[in-house]
Amino acid sequence: MSRRWRDWRDDFWTVLEQSVFVEPSTNRTFNPYRDVVDGVEVADAASIRRENLAAYLGCFADRPPTLIVAEAPGPWGCRFSGVPITSEAQLIDPAFPVSGRVASTGDRSPHAEYSASIFWRELEHAFPGFLVWNTYPLHPHREGAPFTIRAPTAAEIAFGSEPLRALYNLMEPERVLALGRKAEKALGALMIENQYVRHPSQGGARIFADAMRALFS
């Protein structure tokens, strides 16, 4: 691994420590890298998720040429795993390219996520030629319903713009793919040229798959 790439990761991690990791959860957001919910995850769940994210970033021997920007952590994927568009069930699969630990507990542990399954089914062959990050790095949910998903607000997207801009500036990718309209809008606000791709959720799996096969063939 080159020193330059190691420094890139260290610099991005510092940005996360100063902004994302310290942001408190609210009645409409959950910070998976800071907070823990008793009864659904282990006591050190936040630490596990940070370790999983660090392991994900550690998979790259060099800077990947493609940055994929998604919307926000889903309730059964990144919210529990800490890795964008990745589930706990995938992290403990020996055949999966990223390894990690399970933070959840209970009958449904480890959690799996539909969008994560579709995403990696189409893109695992191209890894580590891409890095995926969320426009809003915390989990947005409806008030009183912590395991739902809602679109991030303008203020939340603005909060996520700092680590997103830092990631783009440090990574200097050859191309940027916007996974969904929220990601496309956030990247546009930062004046980052990007290509829109349909998100695999909400009936978009086939369109997403066709697009990714064309882009990573």
CATH architecture: 3-Layer(aba) Sandwich
Order of helices and strands: HEHEHHHEEHEHEH
CATH superfamily: Uracil-DNA glycosylase-like domain
Low-confidence stretches: none
Backbone shape: globular
Reading off the top of the CATH hierarchy, the class is best stated as Alpha Beta
Number of strands: 6
3D architecture notes:
The protein has 217 residues and is an alpha/beta fold. It has helices spanning 3-18, 45-57, 78-81, 88-91, 114-123, 154-171, 181-189, 205-215; strands spanning 29-30, 66-70, 130-134, 139-140, 175-179, 195-197. A 4-stranded parallel β-sheet has the order 3-2-5-6, with helices on both faces. The longest helix has 18 residues, at 154-171. The mean pLDDT is 95.
Which keywords apply here?
4-stranded parallel β-sheet, single chain, 217 residues, 8 helices, two-stranded antiparallel sheet, alpha/beta, globular
